[in-house]
Amino acid sequence: MQDATFVFDYWLGPDGTADVSRLLDSIDASIPLYVLVSHSHKDHYNPDIFAWASRFPRIRYVVSSDVWKRMRHIVSPTSVYKGPRPDPSTVTVLRPGEIFCDDTVRVAAFPSTDTGNSYIADCGGTRIFHAGDLNAWIWLDESSPQEVRKAMGDFHACLRDIRRYIETSPKPDSGADIDFCFFPVDSRIGRDYFTGAAEITIAFNTSRFFPMHFALGDADERRQRRADALRFDLYANRERGEYIPLANPWDLYMCCNQ
Known about the structure:
The protein is of the alpha/beta class. The chain contains six helices and eleven strands. The longest helix has 23 residues, at 145-167.
């Protein structure tokens, strides 16, 4: 039996529009729903998520501190905001290094090399890692060697924090470090855009890797970025793991539901 449902960084519905009905229809309202937001960029945070509380009585929002700054007026009883308002008791704000636990899940927040958080969520013997905008943002075609070294140093520091947590926490039932890893593979970076993905799949024993962050731009740009993100030959760890191309709206990886 499924213990909980997680939605990370909801932005658009499964058809690429604001229509979220198909997604919500697929969620079992009788089990806890955890809606996590890593940061406030428009392709990671959509305040429409707060309308879901009327449909899911066991909802919990976990947000970064920068998202909280953006949404304080939504939960304030004195604001003139007219949109959906969640019960403040259902909102948890996490900063890097902080942890939320209840009877179902344990969610740990880690730093990002951009803004906000990355997350590990443990539930029912399964571990999910969602990077948010954590990546090796190296921009080799535009940056100086010093800037590249700084970017890589910041990225490695974040990975060390994640490593310390993994080494001091109970392993998932699978024995892997991470069961489901969602990580940006974004060719807007330019040359060696896949560096972050290659390093994280070496650093951690990851069972299933899902590239993300390639849905911005016009139709031609999205097609090219999707093709770039799915170049698993450039970054996959050949010794372990499965690499899953959930590259189209409403693609399903059925193992998640088994």
